[in-house]
């Protein structure tokens, strides 16, 4: 599968004394997705719940791998389940690449699905 690239408007906010990170994503078209992330200090992992206006709900868990944050979790699809991996990697000053990948073989091989360049815009 070839990778689709897409521009989106993404808004981040930190709530509950920075214990909850909220992400709202819009675009392309009418697509909207929200996520809520938090760090679990006892387990030493990040947990993320992602919900979008297509009815998808994905629960992801992970942490730091090198200079990136990598989260994985199952996604129900017609005909079964696949594994989703979301990577947030630095891409220069005020830039982060958010890459979505899927695996149909339990994480042995990955297909790139979507890449979003997150660019910090001054408030």
Describe, in short, the structure shown:
Helix content is 0%, strand content 66%. The chain is an all-beta fold and 123 residues long.
Give an account of the 3D structure.
With 123 residues, the chain is an all-beta fold. It has no helices and 10 strands. It has strands spanning 4-5, 9-15, 20-26, 32-40, 45-52, 57-65, 68-77, 80-90, 95-103, 111-119. The protein is globular and about 45 Å long.
Entry keywords:
123 residues; mainly beta; ten-stranded mixed beta sheet; 0% helix; globular
Summed over residues and divided by their number, the pLDDT gives a mean of 88
Number of strands: 10
* pLDDT < 50 stretches: none
Most strands sheet: 10 strands, mixed
Percent range of helical residues: under 10%
Helix tally equals 0
Strand-pairing-aware structural class = mainly beta
Termini separation comes to 37 Å
Order of helices and strands: EEEEEEEEEE
Radius of gyration, in angstroms, nearest whole number: 14 Å
**Lateral arrangement of strands in the main beta sheet:** 1-10-9-8-7-6-5-4-3-2
Strand content: over 45%
* Inertia-based shape: globular
């Amino acid at each position: 599968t070839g990778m689709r690239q897409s521009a989106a408007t993404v808004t981040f906010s930190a709530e509950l004394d920075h214990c909850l990170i909220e992400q709202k994503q819009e675009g392309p078209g009418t697509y909207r997705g929200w996520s809520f992330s938090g760090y679990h200090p006892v387990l030493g992992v990040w947990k993320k719940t992602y919900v979008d206006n297509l009815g998808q709900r994905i629960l992801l868990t992970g942490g730091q791998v090198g200079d990136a944050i990598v989260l994985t979790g199952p996604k129900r699809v017609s005909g079964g389940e696949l594994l989703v991996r979301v990577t947030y990697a630095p891409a220069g000053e005020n830039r982060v690449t958010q890459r979505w990948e899927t695996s149909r073989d339990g994480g042995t091989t990955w297909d790139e699905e979507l890449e979003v360049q997150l660019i910090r815009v001054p408030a």
